[in-house]
Amino acid sequence: EESRVEESNVFSFKNQVNKKRWNQYKESITEVIEYYNRLRNRKLKPQTENYVKLLGWLFNCGYTVKQCKIVTEHRWLEWQDNDTMYKYHRPETLFAYENFQKYLPDAEEWFEKKEKNEYYRKKQLEKTKQLAVKQEEYTSPDIAKKKISELRNVL
Hints:
single chain; 7 helices; disordered N terminus
């Protein structure tokens, strides 16, 4: 009887399929809802039956945690300043199968561009650092004296 009390204090699923999905995808569902919470500064519970149903279905169909996070972030950037759409940035809308299928292609395209931009930004930063080091070599008096000394030794 004690184990029943402990289980019911945590949460109980009305639907056995959702219970099975929770047991199967617990870590993935938790990761997605925690990401949503950080992004939106919310405190939603991952084990909410509707979230388990929606996300469990997506994972069961082969979608990934990364794809769920990309859709979450992309839609937030699209809707956060839109008075009409702001209220729809919630798991019930984002992870409904039909909606998710519509949102994912745009989100993945956006993410790919974002990744490329970050890659090029890092490359540019590396080049800038290399140029700064070279410039320092030519402007630092100590390094300049050393270079002159090396050249004199060669001559």
